[in-house]
Design goal:
The protein is mainly β and 342 residues long. It has helices spanning 30-37, 156-164, 167-170, 176-180; strands at residues 9-13, 17-19, 40-48, 55-60, 63-66, 68-73, 76-82, 90-98, 101-102, 106-111, 117-121, 124-125, 136-140, 194-199, 202-205, 218-220, 231-239, 245-246, 250-255, 263-265, 276-277, 288-289, 294-297, 322-324, 327-329, 331-335, 338-341. The chain is 8% helix and 37% strand. A hairpin with a 5-residue loop joins strand 17 and strand 18 (245-246).
C-alpha cells in the first residue's frame, strides 16, 4: 500500500450527495427506464498527491467500479458517475487509486428527492359514505426533469430488477441488477412516503391503502372522523431518508352539498306527548320536561341534474344542525342520511 506520506489522499468532493432517480411508476417500461438511467454526473474530487494516472473508484451496494477520470491538478480530479448508481438510495463511497496505492474514502449519499405534490384525488365531500371503500390517491407532480419524486409501488425494486433492467442499463454487464448490486435486497419493501393530514390543530400520517394490483399511484385511507365535516385541510407528503423531506402543501377542500330532507319523525306532537321527569317521593321537586327526539332522514347522496351539474356526494355531516321554529337545537350526526335532534 505504501506509506501515508506518498499515498493519494482524498479530502472532499464538490458534491456531498446526489438525488436518487425514481422511474415512471404509472407506465414503466424498459425504454423510459433506460433514458432515466442513461448519462452521468460530474463530480470534482479534492485531495493531495493525485497524480495524472490516478483513478476515482466508487462502491455502492457491493458494486465497485472505476469511474471515467480526468486529471485536473495534483489536488483535483474530475470524475463521471454513471446515473445507474443513482437508481438505489444509500451511502456510496468514493476513493482513488494509483501506482502509489489506495486513498482513504469519503461518503457520497444517494438521497431520496424532496417530493412534489400535485393533487389529492378524488374531490371530497363531507361524510361521503362511499369513502369507506374508495382509496384516496396522492398524485406526484414529478421533478423538473420529469422523474417521479416519491415511491408508490410496493414492487418498486422487483419491477426494476425483473422487467426494466437490461444490458443497456449496465453497459453490457453479465448478470443483471442482482449481480450488479450484490448487497442490495431487491425483494424488500421500498421506503414509502408519509402522507400528513392536518386538521383540528393536529397533523397525522394517513395509513397506506394497499390495492390488489400496483398501478404506480400512492393511495391512502381516511378514517371517517377525518372527513365528516366540511373544512380546508392542508396535506403534505414526506419522503424518508437519506435526503427526502417535506413536499409543498396542498389545501384540500372537503365540501358539503345543500342538504336534502326526505322525512321528519314524529310528523307532529302535542303538549300531551311531553314526558315530565320528577321525583314522585319529593313533593318539592320541580318536574323537568324530557326533550322530544326528532329523527330527520334524507338520501345518502343529494340528487343532481345529470348532464347539467357535477354529481354531489353525501348529504348530512357532523356540522349539520336541525333548526326548529327558527332556532338551532342540539343535533347528533348519525350518518349522511340520518340526524337525531332534541
Amino acid at each position: 500500500m505504501g506509506s501515508e506520506e506518498i499515498l493519494p489522499n482524498v479530502e472532499a468532493a464538490s458534491r456531498e450527495e446526489l438525488s436518487m432517480l425514481i422511474y415512471d411508476q404509472t407506465s414503466p417500461n424498459a425504454s423510459s427506464f433506460n433514458i432515466t438511467a442513461a448519462g452521468s454526473v460530474n463530480i470534482l474530487i479534492y485531495g493531495e498527491r493525485l497524480t495524472i494516472n490516478t483513478k476515482v473508484m466508487i462502491e455502492h451496494w457491493g458494486r465497485i467500479e472505476q469511474l471515467s477520470t480526468t486529471y485536473v491538478t495534483n489536488n483535483a480530479l474530475l470524475a463521471k458517475i454513471p446515473n445507474r448508481f443513482r437508481l438505489l438510495p444509500g451511502i456510496a463511497t468514493l476513493y482513488t487509486v494509483n501506482g502509489l496505492g489506495t486513498s482513504d474514502t469519503i461518503d457520497l449519499a444517494i438521497t431520496f428527492p424532496r417530493p412534489r405534490l400535485d393533487a389529492v384525488n378524488p374531490n371530497l365531500w363531507a361524510a361521503d359514505p362511499d369513502l369507506a371503500t374508495l382509496p384516496i390517491s396522492v398524485i406526484d407532480a414529478k421533478s423538473f426533469a420529469g422523474n417521479d419524486t416519491f415511491i408508490s409501488r410496493r414492487d418498486y425494486y422487483i419491477k426494476m430488477r425483473d422487467d426494466l433492467w437490461s444490458d443497456t442499463t449496465d453497459g453490457g454487464f453479465v448478470g443483471g441488477a442482482d449481480a450488479y448490486f450484490p448487497n442490495f435486497d431487491f425483494n424488500k419493501i421500498p421506503g414509502f412516503p408519509s402522507v400528513l393530514w392536518g386538521a383540528d390543530g393536529t397533523t397525522l400520517p394517513l395509513p397506506r391503502f394497499v390495492q390488489p394490483v400496483d398501478n404506480g399511484i400512492h393511495n391512502v385511507r381516511l378514517a371517517e372522523s377525518q372527513y365528516n365535516r366540511p373544512m380546508l385541510v392542508p396535506v403534505v407528503i414526506c419522503n424518508p431518508g437519506p435526503g427526502g423531506g417535506m413536499s409543498n402543501e396542498i389545501l384540500l377542500t372537503i365540501a358539503a352539498p345543500i342538504p336534502v330532507t326526505s322525512a321528519v319523525e314524529p310528523t307532529n306532537f302535542s303538549p300531551l306527548d311531553i314526558i315530565m321527569d320528577d321525583d314522585f317521593f319529593n313533593p318539592k321537586d320541580t318536574p323537568v320536561a324530557r326533550p322530544i327526539e326528532i329523527r330527520v332522514t334524507g338520501p345518502s347522496h343529494v340528487p343532481n341534474f345529470s348532464g347539467y351539474e357535477e354529481p354531489k356526494f353525501g348529504n348530512f355531516n357532523a356540522s349539520s344542525v336541525v333548526r326548529y321554529d327558527g332556532n338551532d337545537i342540539p343535533t347528533t350526526f348519525v350518518s349522511s342520511s340520518v340526524l337525531i335532534a332534541q
